[in-house]
Amino acid sequence: MVQALAPRYHPAPRLSDVQQGTTAIARGDSGATVRSLQEKLNAAGASPPLKTDGLFGPKTEAALLAFQGSQELSPTGRCDRGTLERLSAAGEMNPPAGAIAPSASDFRRTQAPAPLAPDPAAPAPPGAVPAKDLIQSDDTRRAAARAQADKSKGATLALPPRPAGAMTGSQFLEATKHLSRPEREAALEREVLAGNVPEFARQMKEIDVETVGKDGQRHTGKLRVMPDYLALGSNEDFVQIPMNPLTAQRIADQTGTSLPTKKIVDDVYRQAEVKLRPQPLPAGPQMMSNDYIQRHQNLVNGQRGEVGAELGALTAGHQKDVVITGRLEQHPDRVAIYGWHQPNGKPIQPLSTVHENTYADYSHGVRLVSGTMVVDGVERPLAEVLGDPNLAGLVSDEGVIRNPRVPR
Predict the structure, then answer these.
(1) CB–CB of 177/291 below 8 Å?
(2) Are 355 and 380 in contact (CB under 8 A)?
(3) What does the alpha-carbon distance between residue 68 and residue 79 come to, in Å, rounded to a whole number?
(4) Domains in the chain and their CATH numbers?
(5) HEC profile of the chain
(6) Cα–Cα distance between 369 and 358 in angstroms, integer?
(7) Phi first, then psi: what are they for 10, rounded to 5°?
(8) Which of 45, 261, 295, 327 sits 20 to 30 Å CA-CA off 73?
(9) Model-level pTM?
(10) Could you tell me the CA-to-CA distances from 292 to 176, 180, 298, 303 in Å, in that order?
(11) What is the pLDDT of residues 290-347, one digit of tens each?
(12) Cα–Cα distance, 219 to 213 (Å, whole number)
């Protein structure tokens, strides 16, 4: 039997930052911001009511998921700006517990009988919808909502639809070629979170993982990953633009995803439907330029055409991955990179934390991983799996990773 670890809590972001859309409240957060969230969930009708202890644990997450499902929001289990706005509106409609209720004198007694529930077998009056059809229609709507929630849960990257008239990949590179690196990072983050991501990059792919835990038991799992590296633009004109790990982590936070580990990168390459060969460009300061990024993208696109690779297929080998690793605990100011697998399966880039965490060159890619995974048939948070000595081997060859995020 798998023993769940007690959650570890850390200070939550400020409520004002969530309201501005720069961050989200998530499981493992604690403090006044979480307490405010719990109060809003209770005001919106959380059942059972939450204890407002300021700890974002499984009960708070379950209440938030239930609320998001009821509002047809993406069931991420994270409270972002959109969810917070919906919660505030719902709280205004539902008076909080303890509000003054109408007294018995406010109601008038009547001799009229109470209305009966509709009889599904009764014939409908002319022009009316039969009760049985109303019931079936309601059931159909609920079933469709559940199916949509299941589809959204980790199967599709949680981003808004791509805006009409959004910049293509080549247009973005042209528009940002004279910006500083921090300015380009900020522009990239805005575009991605606004939904300027091609459709093919949104549909997550499933890979199989397994391990034998310290308990001697064999465990199996299924993990959902992006089919390719995060891209900006349209299906017809996109660029898999590199970004530093701080930007990548903020995007992961907003989409309920994670950066991969070294083992996940290896598993993705082994199970990839399309394996592209690395195409290094000459080293130098130009490695971080928009020109190099476009040149490398053109090489990758040409190679896709040579092998007849379809967009949306699980693809690997053409970039290094920005990863999470236990090494970042000792080097929180660095970026961890790994991969760029050769056709023989060996990576060009061993796990490295040489560069500072603002560095990103043309060879770096970000492949987001779903924040939950199936372990022995049960859906569990990826962070929880990484912290469990019996299960961490499913997704890590470094052992337990206590902090599955890029330090900031």
Answers:
(1) yes
(2) no
(3) 9
(4) 10-93 (1.10.101.10), 181-394 (no CATH)
(5) CCCCCCCCCEECCCHHHHHCCCCCECCCEECHHHHHHHHHHHHCCCCCCCCCCCECCHHHHHHHHHHHHHCCCCCCCCECHHHHHHHHHHHHHCCCCCCCCCCHHHCCCCCCCCCCCCCCCCCCCCCCCCHHHHHHHHHHHHHHHHHHHHHHHHHECCCCCCCCCCCCHHHHHHHHCCCCHHHHHHHHHHHHHCCCCCHHHCECEEEEEEEECCCCCEEEEEEEECCCCCCEECCCCEECCCCCHHHHHHHHHHHCEECCCHHHHHHHHHHCCEECCCCCCCCCHHHHCHHHHHHHHHHHHHHHHHHCCCCCCCEECCCEEECCCHHHHCCCCECCEEEEECCCCCEEEEEECCCECCCCCCCEECCCEEEEEEECCEEEEHHHHHCCCCCHHHCCCCCCCCCCCCCC
(6) 21
(7) -140, 160
(8) 261
(9) 0.65
(10) 13, 15, 10, 17
(11) 999 999 999 999 999 999 999 999 999 999 999 999 999 999 999 999 999 999 999 9
(12) 7
Q: How far apart are CA 328 and CA 9, in angstroms?
A: 19
- Residue 197, number of CB atoms within 10 A of its CB: 26
In tens, the pLDDT along 71-83 reads 878 778 899 998 9
Mean pLDDT of 24-52: 91
